[in-house]
Amino acid sequence: MSRRFVNLIAERFIGQYPASTLHRINPWRCFYPTTQQALAASENSKAYSVEDDARLPRAAISFYDPLQPDNPGDVNFFSLGSSSDGIISMDPDGNTLLYDGASRGLRVMPAPHAAKGASVSLAVGDGLYILAVNPGTEEDHSFEALIHRGPSDDTTTRSDEKWFWRSLPPPPYAYDDHECRKVGDYEEYRRRCYERNGKCPYAIGAYTVVGDSQVWISTKGGGTFSFDTTSGQWSEAGDWALPLYGRVEYAPELGLWFGFTSEDEGSQFAACDLGAASPTRPPVLIKAWDEIAPPPVPPRWVPVMAFLLPLGGGKFCVARMFDLAQEGWCRGKSGKDYLNVDTFAVLTGVEVVRGSRGVLRMIRHKSRRYNVGSSMARLL
Questions:
Q1: Which superkingdom (predicted)?
Q2: What sign does the dihedral 237-240-243-248 (CA atoms) show?
Q3: I need a labelling partner for 362 at 20 to 30 A (CA). Which of 34, 37, 81, 117 fits?
């Protein structure tokens, strides 16, 4: 399904109250009308450039943070469905709302068995699967799925469509007897891991969906695990890690998975074939491109994070966040002091096509820059 919008969520104050505002950006403005026009533009200018500054759309809706001094924490947001028209919000107590971008409606949803803090999420069909980055036992409900059940065909009784949470078994490494296993607190867990081994074997490095029902969780040094959403069982996909970082996106038009090669500033946009992997044969990168690596920026432009958002038809939106800073405040590894001023989102339209011999080619379209203001932001 072709995706119409990119969802940007900015944390800001509305009056004196902290809130998260949802802005829906049209990513197709980052594309030329035709591939030929994009090729002609790239031939005329090989250097990375931002074609124009764009105004951030007005907020479609605002979510106020709960004012609970005894239970502080940010509101979490998750994308639901292939079109990303559904946005799930969840506060630290587990209170859950569904915003439908198509109808601009808001719906109260059932609460999960346990609130989700630091976690990763993937949409599989109509369901949303959320796994804590530091999962506990099954009693902790650290892995849950929000499942949609349609209306019943039985006309003799009134049975409306329903959403419900299903608690699922955590990945096998949650029960591992390794001395570096979960110790209750994630930061303490990481500290013990690095003290003993120099690395955290079960920190999630990448995650994705394979086929119609497989959720893959790839760890840094502890292997890759597969959860079958049909049978509800975990298995080990292989004693290897995926060669990509973060959320990895599948492009059915190309039969390949796409993502970034690392979390570093110099990460590349890359393609990988997970369908060819086996327990004894790890997946390898098919192609990686430097053309959309982070652009050269002045010292006051500080890279923050990157997002990959599939649009359908072999097209992607590559979004990178930057802080515009001035001297006086420390940020990053450069050792220089900066004062944070504004945050910018740079969206780049990218198209991947196959040549006559099946060789992949990446075509960069336009880039647009959005000023988010002095706030943190994320994209869904």
A1: Eukaryota
A2: positive
A3: 81
